Please model this.
Amino acid sequence: MKNILFAAACGLTAGALAYAHAPSPLMTTWGEQITPANAWREYPRPQMVRANWTNLNGEWDYAVTSVTNTPGRPKTWDGKILVPFCLESALSGVGRLLEPDQFLWYTRTITCDPKPGERILLHFGGVDFRTMVFIGHDEVTDVPHEGGQNPFTLDITDYVKPGANELTVCVWDPTEDFVNSRGKQSFKPKGCFYTRVSGIWQTVWMETVPACHIESYTVVTDIDKGTATLKFNLAGRGGDQVKVSVDGVGEFAGDGEVVVKMPSGFKLWSPEAPNLYTFTAKCGADEVGGYFGMRKIEKRKDAKGVLRFYLNNEPYFVMGTLDQGWWPDGLLTPPSDEAMAYDIQVLKDCGFNTLRKHIKVEPLRYYYLCDQLGILVIQDLPSGNHNAQTPLDAKETARYGLQRLEQKEMMDALQAVPSIVMWNPYNEGWTQPGEFLSHSMLDFTRRYDPTRLVNGPSGCWDWEGGHLLPKGWKWENRVWTQHKPAGECEAADTVDLHLYRGPEMFAVNDRRISFLGEFGGLGHPVEGHLWRTSKKGNWGYGGIEDTKTRDGLEKTYLGLMDKLGDLAEKGLGGAIYTQTTDVEIEINGVLTYDRKVLKYNPAVLKAAHGRVCARGNGK
Model:
């Protein structure tokens, strides 16, 4: 809006302005360096790379129109928006809110060269929420895509002509209505809910592929047998075998399924040693590059008979942070690869081995960085409207079909990511339906991806069994259940407690790992790095009187770690501290929201976390 007003004052059209980010209370160092020329230029899908692709990020024309009586696509445009940053963000260059009674439109020219025997694919990393796509007059979305955080692909071959084509995208985003993948977005940000995000917020790109090509693949590694099984989903199949060349291992082939026999002494993947094996897969004229990590995650009883997480056949105490993945300048969209890598590396420097990706699906490059740098990921399903009080409400039942679809789409998109070790379909009852449908979701997740664990409803409404109320506790909005009868399915692998500040744990049981899914949240304001400049309204869990100084913060944190070590020794399998960064008015991050201040001495935290993990691992 600031740019548009400036243009009017100077007698210029909005489109004639050079790019500038919109006003924001805070900016990251990476965001300050963003231009249309350097915004997200990397190939967006490291898990399946092709050479022949076109990046469509950059400045597009945009317009906002009323939903009511909109006659069609806009005749005039409001200005330029920098894709892939959402309308509301500073880095988009716009910085305005979209209302539920408005459409958000995008347009740009794409250049195509359709040839016989080839297909042209148009990929969207993430668009919030309902998306219609047009080439010229023709809509290429047979059904508008719904879901704000999962990638989708359109085959536009039959709609484009040689040379220039007009690409138009229309988005509708109600944010707080029936949408499942709302996540932490809010019309009125407060507490742990943040500024809403609308429209394109991840990379848009095109690829030219042979008619017979690889659509996707799954990978299942077996470290005990020393194999990696790659299953390829092929489009337009012409009978060709898939040939796989694994760097440093050898050549393999199969009819859609390729079993890679690893050599003796192959390297395992873990946070401590994130070894990856890269490969090239060829099917006819198509060629893609990918990678996998040899790792195994399971629940198993330790020498004392206590159920724990086991990574690569060894007990492994999960020590992580709640990671919201929000940015002051890009909101849901990170400013750059370097920005994402910084967050992950800071956690590792502080001795964390895990992050819980909270109510968000990240760009695929983020998960590649987790794989490459070495950190475990617990992946949440982004929730819908946040109703934790009445899980039997008909509205929660109505959302269930979209929930299941988005859970499946998310697992499909992220299946090849070795760092993801556990799925978390429900958080604190948000859009969680009743007992039958909750169990059905957990059971589906467990069956659909047996290579990973399933977190029992995180922090609330757990009917799976063994969610027992510790003596003397009395909480509302919780379900405390004995185990189900022998032989009856308990679909979750953990019994998950949230307690601020904590820490505390559920009693050890024989069927589910005792897990502390959220705790801590120590508030510490850093002047000059606050989203809200007035101290009023900034908050951390349990107040900030004992943590408002750097010394007080560290002392309090180390006290929590001493207690956590005791729990780890008693049988707690892992814990997730809130949180990686400050977010808007939340000031309980290890880092400030702009990532310019690390509030702790990383060496002190790393030593403390090492002691906790050692006690949890029986060392």
